[in-house]
Design brief:
Length: about 525
């Protein structure tokens, strides 16, 4: 009998375990139609599995196929490591890659000898049809959205567009250990991740999302969102949700129906990371914003990108610098906080990197005067192949990798553009990992949630000292002699190693208890 088991793997995103805990929503989305068509789906997540490599090898033994997701950077390298191990031990098992990087660079991905098939674009229907064909030993040439090798040649089938997805199933959270992903955040003690839509219709020249979604936006109905959230709320006793998606506020009527549905069902949840453009909410009526507030929508993620209008026009953002200030004034009236995301290093011929950074800091300062509850993050722009801005960056001297292995060696926390100096990189890291965290009042709220027990007083005193130094550094743009920053980073590294050790220990204890249970039986 042909195997009915599908193994889906999320490799390690970072070599140094600087991971951010998130639920593998993309893998759950791929798993949903498989799960509903009687496949046995197993998800292995390197972020929470203490010994994921050996666990994946063991689970692969009786699998029909193995699916691996990968974003640009170390996850490719780790994905190739597990692909090689599985292919070497089980040469007949099909290794299928999907996700952001394989979609952006499918040819470079499929060339690798340890990869049999690439799913190009959104994989819900494609992976289901592929799995059914493999199970029934049928030809895959008529399945849309594939790259594969046949007799030494690369074959690619017609593209499957996002709008062609037949159905968006409820995510099967029950196939993962949900408790591993529930954590304390600034929103609540039991926060879980969720997604209500896919894609983005906008045309920012730096963004590669259109390669996944073809600039279409596809959403769950308000009824499905309410049903799923009610289920998660009741089943897992969560008190908050992080919405991980590109665009949340495109359909105002849908937002209204979601809010009304949650209030009707008496769902007491706080919502964070709601992705919004700077000008999207400016036309919302006060009654609508009040409804959103009452439904628990609190933390908005805004891709500001820059505090310089020339840069915003250069990347075709279609917003004004002043829109952020207007949004900050508006949301402050309804107790909504902003997570402001910026980028630096677009390579504009008339705007220096130093000017980009200074304009961002000036804009942040203006927003702090309105309300000092916000999170801030600056990314160093990483040019992505296939985007309009990528070609301009190559003309400026960008030496981009051209193989899958080389892309796997890319460290996304470091700069790779020759016009961005190491000094700028150090300033940005210091701002993100230290100064921005301490100059916001929102960080003090996190103290009360995260720091408990007999050491709470000492931890708060320690952080109060760092806050005063961070405020001084921000006010005077003083980034020299960062002894305080280095001390903080070493503390974080120690904490990260402790977390990883606990995961490994927990994983070993689980396996040991399973063995004991079998012996007792």
């Amino acid at each position: 009998m042909e195997s009915n088991k599908i193994l889906l793997i999320r490799p390690k995103p970072d070599e140094k375990d600087r991971f951010i805990l998130t639920t593998p929503l993309s893998l759950l989305a791929v798993a949903a139609p498989l799960f509903n068509n009687e496949f046995n789906v197993k998800i292995i997540d390197a972020i929470v599995e203490g010994d994921y490599f050996n666990t994946a090898l063991k689970e692969a033994e009786d699998a029909l196929c193995v699916g691996i997701t990968a974003i640009t950077g170390y996850q490719i390298k780790d994905g190739l490591r597990i692909s090689k191990a599985i292919k070497t031990k089980f040469p007949d098992i099909k290794i299928i890659w999907g996700g952001w990087h394989p979609t952006i660079m499918p040819v470079e991905t499929i060339i690798n000898s340890y990869i049999d098939i690439v799913v190009h674009g959104s994989g819900e229907d494609t992976f289901l049809e592929l799995s059914m064909a493999l199970r029934e030993h049928k030809d895959i040439k008529n399945i849309k959205g594939l790259y594969y090798k046949q007799n030494g040649k690369i074959i690619n089938t017609p593209k499957r567009y996002l709008r062609e997805i037949k159905k968006l199933y409820d995510l099967p959270y029950e196939i993962i250990d949900v408790e591993r992903y529930i954590r304390a955040t600034a929103l609540g003690e039991r926060t879980l991740d969720y997604r209500t839509s896919y894609g983005c219709p906008y045309k920012c020249t730096f963004c590669a999302d259109f390669l996944m979604s073809d600039r279409h936006w596809y959403s769950l109905s308000a009824e499905q969102v309410v049903r799923e959230l009610v289920n998660l709320y009741e089943k897992y006793n969560i008190d908050s949700v992080l919405i991980l998606e590109n665009e949340f506020f495109i359909n105002k009527n849908r937002i209204r129906q979601i809010c009304e549905g949650l209030i009707k069902h008496n769902v007491n949840l706080k919502f964070g990371n709601l992705n919004v453009r700077a000008n999207q909410l400016l036309d919302y009526e006060p009654e609508m914003l009040e409804l959103m507030k009452n439904a628990g929508m609190k933390d908005l993620l805004i891709g500001v990108e820059s505090g310089n209008q020339k840069i915003l026009d250069y990347i075709d953002k279609k917003t004004k610098v002043g829109d952020l200030v207007k949004l900050k004034e508006l949301t402050s009236k309804f107790d909504m906080e902003l997570f402001m995301s910026f980028m630096i290093g677009f390579g504009h011929p008339d705007v220096s990197i130093g000017q980009e950074l200074e304009d961002i800091l000036n804009l942040v300062e203006e927003c702090r005067k309105i309300n000092n509850k916000q999170l801030i993050f600056i990314s160093i722009y990483m040019p992505y192949p296939g985007t309009e801005l990528f070609n301009k960056c190559v003309e400026l001297g960008l030496d981009a990798p051209n193989t899958l292995e080389d892309w796997g060696n890319i460290d996304l926390t470091k700069t790779h553009s020759p016009w961005i100096s190491k000094n700028i990189e150090k300033k940005v890291n210091m701002l993100n990992n230290y100064i921005f965290q301490y100059i916001s009042d929102q960080f003090e709220d996190k103290w009360d949630r995260l720091y408990k027990g007999k050491f709470k007083f000492f931890l708060k005193s320690y952080h109060n000292i760092l806050k005063k130094v961070a405020l001084f550094r921000f006010k005077y743009r003083f980034f020299y002699f960062p002894i305080d920053y280095y001390f903080l980073e070493n503390s974080k590294n120690i904490k990260s190693k402790i977390v990883r050790f606990k995961l490994v220990l927990s994983d070993k204890l689980v396996r040991k208890n399973k063995v004991k249970a079998k012996i007792n039986v």
